[in-house]
Design a protein that fits this description.
Number of helices: 11
Largest sheet: 7 strands, mixed
CATH topology: Rossmann fold
Strand content: 15-25%
Helix content: 25-40%
Shape: globular
Number of domains: 1
Radius of gyration: 17 Å
Order of helices and strands: HHHEHEHEEHEHHEHHHE
Length: 243
Amino acid sequence: MSPVRREDCDLVTASEEYAQRFAGEVGAYFLEVQTERTLELIANWPGAKILDVGGGHAQLAGPLIQAGYEVTVAGSSQACAQRLERLLTPGSYEFQAVDLMNMPWPEKSFDLVLSFRMLTHVADPTGYAAQLCRLARGAVVVDYPAKQSFNLVADSLFKAKQSLDDNQHTRPFVSFWDKEVDALFAEQGFGNPTRRRQHFWPMALHRAVKSGGFTKAAEGLARGLGLTALLGSPVILRMERLA
């Protein structure tokens, strides 16, 4: 049964204004880490057919294409294709504007389904996870802010975060315990969770300092001490189809 409302939270993340959150050396570092971890998690599916849901932000489509994957991006409207059209070679990918909560492809149409910057903002995480899983033959890969990190106090610190982050597209988000996200996908017959935690220190802090050197040093130290593996966020999660 289709939900009452269409999901369009990707309109913000696909905008040029939102892309400024990842400008400069600090933003480039964030995207580099995200790309490396993602490619690592999907390395067992070389050349796979991938659906990137909500991927109009163009953070992953380019690297995926360069790595030899066949990429389709799903967005909630044609407006979500603008960054892709500007940054990617025509014909190197496919874009479709669809109802993200009722996508038109048959079951298991793609080897892998990816969705970044979405789970934390959708109104119905359970229904959204079901859509991703329905279309994936092999695995689903998503990211989410983890509660076992500085996000544990995110609600109380949100106003402070806004003051640190001068980008107007800082917005409220939902953090998850790992087991909560696992359960969303387990309900759909997916398991074997594999995680990659990206950063220990809050991303808003790095954006406030605006120093690539500081970010690399601070995150390198945290990673070396094992803090990122324990408490890092956002988390990139791969869940595999079990049957």
